[in-house]
Amino acid sequence: MSKTIGVGLIGLGTVGGGVVRLLQDSPCSMRRRTGASLALKRVAVRDLGKSREVPVDASLLTGDAMALVRDPQVQMVVELTGAPQAYEWISEALRAGKDVVTANKALLAERGDELFRLALEKGADLMFEASVAGGIPIIRMLRNGLVANRVESLYGILNGTTNYILTQMTRGAGGYAETLRHAQEKGYAEPDPTLDVSGQDAAQKLAILCRIAFQTTGTAKQIFCEGIERIEPQDIEYARELGYTIKLLAIAKRRGEEVEARVHPVMVPSEALMANIHDVFNAIEVVGSSVGTQVFYGRGAGQMPTASAVVADMVELAERRNSGAGPAIGDMIIGDEATAIADMRQVELRYYLRALACDRPGVLAQIARVLAEERISIASVIQKERDLQGGTVPLIIVTHEAPEAGMQRALAALGRLDILEGQARVIRIEAL
Amino acid sequence: MSKTIGVGLIGLGTVGGGVVRLLQDSPCSMRRRTGASLALKRVAVRDLGKSREVPVDASLLTGDAMALVRDPQVQMVVELTGAPQAYEWISEALRAGKDVVTANKALLAERGDELFRLALEKGADLMFEASVAGGIPIIRMLRNGLVANRVESLYGILNGTTNYILTQMTRGAGGYAETLRHAQEKGYAEPDPTLDVSGQDAAQKLAILCRIAFQTTGTAKQIFCEGIERIEPQDIEYARELGYTIKLLAIAKRRGEEVEARVHPVMVPSEALMANIHDVFNAIEVVGSSVGTQVFYGRGAGQMPTASAVVADMVELAERRNSGAGPAIGDMIIGDEATAIADMRQVELRYYLRALACDRPGVLAQIARVLAEERISIASVIQKERDLQGGTVPLIIVTHEAPEAGMQRALAALGRLDILEGQARVIRIEAL
User: Are A25 and A59 contacting, i.e. CB atoms less than 8 angstroms apart?
Assistant: First the structure.
């Protein structure tokens, strides 16, 4: 009854190799899905001569991805390269009415709108479970499992590299630069770690999640983004004293008709579940109008977790095609009801502020006055013992809720006052 | 294009009322699923005259559930009563080719096989997300999100009542009976708590999960089940000293060609995520061959979480019907490939054993000999200070892995020795 769907795979790297392995091994759970017969028909690779860990029939290999897309034997295109040409391949496949599975978060975060619309127009599907949080089925969960919910807020640890670095720093592994170097040695950070440590990778993933959870159409560039590069061991130590743990969170929250969307280091209560997600693991906390708080935890990267997500999409698409169901892309198309991303300057947050203040009378009063001028109310102050070397005193201030714009103006004003050594540092606080 | 699916709702209790509310409010996420128009056509209730929290058009109400099932306006039956007649209603609906959504875990755990087969035969679907872990979309996750995995093991906190009682006892609220009474006062435990505290409720849920995750066809009665009634505050205290926390876990693990399936109090390492699931929350840890460890956390009961799960099933069924897709029940039918549930007596576990030993020379040697005769090797012993009142000494023994049958024989032998005050108590240990 069910006919076999011909698959064209673009990219035989780590994840592509994992997908081939799963298609070859086909766990029992897949074999029982009789509506989903998948046959690998073509595999596009950059280097035809390269030796491969996964055995693939050489006759399937091609160096021409576009020819693969156009091959009539290929009814489903699985794009796993992250290459700049991916947009061309995917849109060509969709134009031909072929379903596409991709893990390409950068592409979806920037040009998702065009691609989803093209898919709908051509009666094809575009699935992307693997683009966010690796093996955690968060996309399905938001689209299907939580369909009867208005998502109120979403907090994600979406980047394994930064979570690993912060976990290690929290365990006392040393400063940022040193911990990053260890992470690179262990293969948990790229040789050029910018995309991860700057928060951009998490922002791309958040852009994809916000489209589903909040009906935004914004790209990752509209998401406020601050990395972990300036977190210092003493911030982690002071956070601990205050009962907090520092995490890089991707946060989205309804705020009236708009949605806050931001990625930055956050102090979260140490007893919160999100504070206890360690090493390279990912987790997403979703607060839904019906279900309340839910948390999903697992590996956000790696060959087999990511391949698992890709294959889940492939199985679903094959079943849909074989059962004669139309594409499921409809809910990804957002028209007039698009939710705007709020201006970060107007977001109200609590702040941890750390400064090295000159040790002379009246300095705390001056700092307090600067904050008061921006109507930033102080919740607590910790003044540490004087620094042994210089004549400076570490000062930690925790504020009540205040608009981001006011805090930024206050920081600029403090910088002009000539009472601090270096710049005051700020970390935002979330109660969760 | 999409036609409206007529819904017949049996039961307008807490969850039924929540479903009606969601259909009336219809969050944006549901409205965007244009393939899924649902219209409430009939509502069967026990007492037509009862005043309702949720406003339902009186003309929809009927006292005759079977008439509702047979009503040609009703294309989808949603059964939310847990009544003994549910089997008749559901099977009648399926025989007529109507899709069914139910939250009836007891029915599915005992007669799921018959019902799934009937559904397949009649080209209808039977969905049951709400039957396990309330609002957590665990059924979908296992069937779809993790389809490319062989599930290796599964650990669930599936019963909110017992997790609440154990959490409170861990926080020092007192003994079992006292804590149960408080839970009853707060509405977290039923006036007759047997089904929950005995572990039977969790066993029913585990039977449903095992069918999906391990292809078992066994009923809840085949699952070894021990409740929390005999957990004492000192067990919780000794567990803490040993680095463990006591939880009631539903556990399933592959063991050769079979699967272990059991519900009982477990000592888990206190730093494990599962040890930190508090109060009435549920969580399920799944270890998949591709994804590794994943954890799903949320509310396992309550009006709106459960209604959220019911409505997610309704939306999916309406979309399938409207797109012309056949039923998705195929993967629930298990034939020759059924996995057997292992004999509990052969399961090998580590044990915590607590006894009040008579304080005289040679007693520890006698106990050690009894264990040695069953080839149970001792990992550690803690002997506490002598009890002030009697002449007894609390003795805690942690064993290495040993077969359950051997441990049970050892316990019986210890009972015959006349060196213990009362019976020795055992709690199983899981490393997670």
Answer: no
The answer to whether the CB atoms of A331 and B304 lie below 8 A apart is no
Number of domains comprising chain B: 3
Q: Which residues, at least 6 apart from A403, have a Cβ–Cβ distance to it below 8 Å?
A: A345, A346, A347, A348
Spell out which residues of chain B touch residue A321, defining contact as CB-CB under 8 Å.
none
d(CA A114, CA A281): 32
| Integer Cα distance of B204 and B263 in angstroms | 10
Residues A124 and A236 both lie in one domain = no
- Give the span between the Cα atoms of B324 and B321, in whole angstroms: 5
Residues B174, B268: one domain? yes
- Is A240 part of a structural domain of the chain? yes
Is residue A265 predicted with pLDDT exceeding 60? yes
Tokens coding B277: 């699931």
Other CB atoms within 10 Å distance of the CB of residue B388: 5
Domain of residue A61 covers 4-135+303-328
Q: Is residue A282 part of a domain?
A: yes
Is A298 in Cβ contact with B298 (below 8 Å)? Answer: no
> Which of A 325-354 lie inside 8 A of B, CB atoms?
325-326, 328, 330-331, 337
- Bigger pLDDT: B202 vs A27: B202
A160 and A275 part of one domain: yes
**Which run of H or of E encompasses A425?**
strand A420-429
Q: Is residue A205 annotated as part of the catalytic site, yes or no?
A: yes
Q: How far apart are CA B304 and CA A204, in angstroms?
A: 32
The C-alpha angle with vertex B153 and arms to B151 and B158, in degrees rounded to 5, equals 110
A21 and A54 part of one domain: yes
| A56 and A79 within one domain | yes
> Nearest-CA distance from A375 to chain B in Å?
37
B32 plus B119 within the same structural domain:
yes
Contacts of A140 in chain B (CB under 8 A): 140-141, 144-145
Does A31 lie in the same domain as A126? yes
Same domain, residue pair B283 and B148: yes
Taking an 8 Å cut-off on Cβ atoms, the answer to whether A308 and B290 are in contact is yes
The answer to whether A227 faces chain B, any CB pair under 8 Å, is no
* CATH code where residue B390 lies: 3.30.70.260
CB-based contact A68:A60 (threshold 8 Å): no
What SS3 state is found at A163? Answer: helix
Residue-wise pLDDT for A65-103, tens only, equals 999 999 999 999 999 998 999 999 999 999 999 999 999
B274, closest residue in chain A (CA to CA):
A273
Count of beta carbons in the 10 Å neighbourhood of residue B289:
18
Residue of B144, B215, B273 with shortest CB distance to A312:
B144
**Does B98 map to a domain?**
yes
The neighbour count for residue B81, using CB atoms within 10 Å, is 22
Q: Which of A48, A46, A43 is nearest to A69 (CA)?
A: A43
Distance from CA of A370 to the nearest CA of B (A): 42
Residue A313 maps to a domain: yes
Instruction: Give the tens place of pLDDT for each residue, B325-344.
Output: 889 999 999 988 899 999 99
Average pLDDT over residues B220-239: 97
Arithmetic mean of pLDDT, B45-70? 94
Q: What number is the average pLDDT over the span A200-219?
A: 97
pLDDT of residue A388: 64
